[in-house]
Write a structure and sequence with these properties.
The protein is 40% helix and 16% strand. By secondary structure, the protein is an alpha/beta fold. It folds into 2 domains: 195 residues, 3-Layer(aba) Sandwich (D-Maltodextrin-Binding Protein, domain 2); 163 residues, Periplasmic binding protein-like II (D-Maltodextrin-Binding Protein, domain 2). Strands 1, 2, 3, 4, 5, 6, 7, 8, 9, 10 and 11 form an 11-stranded mixed β-sheet that branches. The chain is globular, with a radius of gyration of 21 Å. The N terminus and C terminus are likely disordered.
Length: 383
């Protein structure tokens, strides 16, 4: 689907949800089986436009449950939001790292699989990961990779390597995701290391590489949302940058001068999940929604819309052929062998990365202030 239409529909869904919220503001909070006088609602908390609006509409038509879509920009916002407003959200979409952290903080409710007969549709290889053994708290939603997108008219036939993001000719035109584990992982891949290595030597190499981008290459750190990626690449502000696979595919379909590849050093594989907030006021509705999303045809509608791979085996007959044939969306085995999923984030593993990232962000902010705008470039260099 065209990205502008996707964004338009997503924005419309958010507006409608906000209006619905305002209309319901005067009503008393509900119990675990809905709110108001016979009204059934569900509060969904996710990235903007990370679910096919038609899927949500179908669910409401079928169940009578009004889905109110709330959004965040970065997953770091989720923890603070659940603390600040307990009971506001029911179903949350988060990545595997956040599943682990929120589970440890006891901010999630256990999933009652007796209410999810469609759980059987999920492929076993995507279940029982170390961040949530037995999938007690999480239901796999979509998976993908973090790859490299670039302007093929500016960089013809590049070597498929992360080193492209450190080339001097791209000064001021490099985009890195403003996600510490993702960007640190890329810096480690660049040096032939595992993205999960946490030795002092490995982290020193990663910090040196990221500081080089800040101090020598005028790097831009961008949010991991499709609109930012599209704007950067199409305007010429970014010639090469990190991108989530589905976003890169959609932008490349819309703009012929944008291409992408999985670097030869490897890349991150990630899995996004559906979870139920511990303080959910609509637990019955939350389970009904999860079971609906696990239907094969519904799972395929979300995957086709977002251009991400589905962990749902029953979805395969409904997936678009161009998706199944695209190695950027469903990488073949020989490419997957070079890719990694992030290890479970223990405090011991997380602390040194947080300190490293803090130093990088401080240096970037200082550089940004001194130049007034890190993304500013000579007009003559723009397309």
């Amino acid at each position: 689907m065209k990205i502008f239409l996707r964004l338009l529909l997503g924005s419309l869904a958010v507006v409608l949800c906000q209006c619905s919220d305002q209309q319901a503001a005067s009503k008393e909070p509900g119990s675990t089986s809905g709110s108001g006088k016979g009204e059934r609602v569900l509060h969904l908390y996710s990235w903007e436009d990370y679910m096919n609006p038609m899927v949500i509409e179908t669910f409401t038509e079928r169940s009578g449950i009004d889905v109110r879509y709330h959004t965040f920009e970065e997953t770091d916002e989720v923890e603070s939001a659940l603390r600040a407003e307990p009971g506001k959200y029911d179903v949350v979409v988060i990545d595997n790292d956040k599943v682990d952290r929120l589970r440890e903080l006891r901010m999630l409710r256990k999933v009652d699989k007796s209410l999810l007969p469609n759980f059987k549709n999920l492929a076993e290889k995507h279940l029982d990961q170390d961040y949530d053994p037995g999938n007690e708290f999480s239901v796999p939603y979509l998976w993908g990779t973090t790859l490299l997108a670039y302007r093929n008219d500016k960089i013809p036939n590049p070597e498929p390597s992360w080193n492209l993001l450190w080339e001097s000719r791209l000064k001021g035109r490099i985009g890195m995701l403003n996600e510490r584990n993702e960007s640190v992982g890329v810096a480690l891949f660049r040096h032939g290391r595992s993205m999960n290595e946490r030795s002092e030597e490995a982290l020193a190499l990663a910090e040196m590489s990221l500081m080089e981008q800040v101090e020598r290459l005028d790097v831009q750190f961008i949010a991991g949302v499709p609109a930012d990626l599209e704007e950067g690449l199409t305007s010429g502000d970014i010639w090469a940058g990190m991108a989530y696979s589905g976003d890169a595919v959609m932008v490349a379909e819309e703009h012929e001068n944008v291409s992408y590849f999985i670097p030869k050093e490897g890349c991150a594989i990630w899995m996004d999940h559906l979870v139920i907030a511990r303080d959910s006021q609509n637990v019955e509705e939350a389970h009904e929604f999860l079971n609906f999303l696990l239907e094969g045809e519904i799972a395929a509608e979300n995957a086709n819309y977002l251009h991400y791979a589905s962990p749902n085996v029953a979805a395969e007959p409904y997936l678009a052929k161009e998706m199944l044939d695209n190695p950027g969306i469903v990488p073949p085995a020989e490419i997957l062998e070079r890719c990694e999923m992030a290890d479970r984030l223990t405090p011991e593993r997380e602390r040194p990365v947080n300190r490293l990232w803090g130093r990088v962000m401080s240096a970037w902010e200082d550089a940004n202030l001194s130049s007034q705008a890190v993304t500013e470039a000579p007009q003559s260099a723009l397309p």
